[in-house]
Amino acid sequence: MLSNSTKVWIFILLSSLGLVMLGYNLGERLGLFVGFLFAIGLNFFVFFYGESQILVSLNAKELKGQDPWNLQETISKYTNHLGIAYPSVYLIPAKVETAFCVSHSWRKGTLAISMGLLEKFSPEDLEAVVAYQVCHLQRMDSFRFGVTNTIANALVGLGRLLDHFWPPNYFLLANQKQQPFLKIFSPLAWTLVKVASSHKIYFQNDLHAAELLHDRFRLAEVLWRLEGLAQTQPIKAPPCSSHLFIVNPEGYTQNLFMKSHPSIQVRLQKLMGYYPI
After folding, report:
1. Which residues contact 229 (CB under 8 A, 6 or more apart)?
2. pTM for this structure?
3. Could you identify which of 11, 146, 202, 250 might form a hypothetical disulfide with 254, taking C-beta atoms 3.0 to 4.6 angstroms apart as the criterion?
C-alpha cells in the first residue's frame, strides 16, 4: 500500500513528464525545452509558493510571543505524541470559526486557526480541533492536499491569464468580459481536487483523531458545531482550497460540484456509528 507522500511524488513526476512530452509533441526540440521549463516552474511553484499563497490570501500571521489560549502547548502535546515536527502556527484574523493545515514533504507543516475559533471555543473543543489537524500532518494528507491545491490554483490562474488576452475582451466592458479559458480550466482544477481529496481520507482522519483524543463524542460534537457555523457564517476561501479546512468553509454558498468534504451526516455516521449525535 503506497503512502500518501509516495502517491504525491508519483503524481508530481508524472505531471512533469507529461509536460515535457506534451512540449515535444507540440514543438519537437523547442517544445521539449519549453515543456522542461514549465515542469521546473511547476515544481518551484508547488514547493516554494504553495503554503504562502493561501496564508497571504487569508491575511494569516504567524503566532509569536503571547499565547493566552495555550495553543502552542496543546500542539506540542500531540506532535510529541505522534513523533512529528512542531508545525508553524498561524492565526487567521477572522471572526468565523475555522482551521486548516498544509505541508510539504521535507519541511515542517503549517497549521492555521482563526481568531473566532480561539475566542469562542472551549479549551477542550480547541484540543479536538488541534488533534484533528495534527493527524492530517502526521498522515501526510496535508502534503497531498497542499500540492493539489497549488496545482489547481495554477490551472485557474492560467485560465484567467489567457482570458485576459482573449481578443474579444479588449472591446467589451468590465461586466461583459468573456471567460472561455476559465470555464475550461476551472472544472479541470476542481476535478483534480475531488480526486485527491476522497471522502475516505476524511473518514480515516476523523477516526485517527478520535483515537488520539480518546473521545469520539468530543470530536463529533466539534465537527457538527463547525459545520453549522460554516453554513451560517461562510468565508470566501481561495480557489480550490476548501478541501484543506476541517469542514467546508463556504457552507451552502459553494457549488455542489466543488464540494470536497463528505456531508456532516455521513461523517458523523462513520465516526460514531449513528446520527444524529
Report:
1. 96, 97
2. 0.87
3. 250
Q: Which amino acid is at 263?
A: S
Phi, psi of 101 (to 5 degrees): -140, 155
Q: Are 62 and 118 in contact (CB under 8 A)?
A: no
Task: Tell me the C-alpha distance between 211 and 2, whole Å.
Answer: 23
Residue located via cell numbers 451552502: 252
| Domains and their CATH numbers in the chain | 61-142+196-272 (3.30.2010.10)
Dist CA 29 CA 35 (whole Å): 10
Instruction: Please check whether residue 248 is in contact with residue 261, taking contact to mean a CB–CB distance below 8 angstroms.
Output: yes
Owner of C-alpha cell 468590465: 174
* Helix segments in 58-101, DSSP class H: 71-82
How far is Cα of residue 66 from the mean position of the Cα atoms in its chain? 27
**Burial status of residue 91 (CB atoms within 10 A of its CB: 0-12, 13-18, 19 or more):** buried
Instruction: Burial-class residue 110 by CB neighbours within 10 Å (0-12, 13-18, 19+).
Output: buried
Distances (CA, A) of 235 to 78, 134, 220: 28, 23, 22
What sections of the chain are H helices per DSSP? Answer: 4-57, 71-82, 115-120, 123-139, 141-164, 180-196, 199-213, 216-232, 264-272
Distance between CA atoms of residues 253 and 236, nearest Å: 9
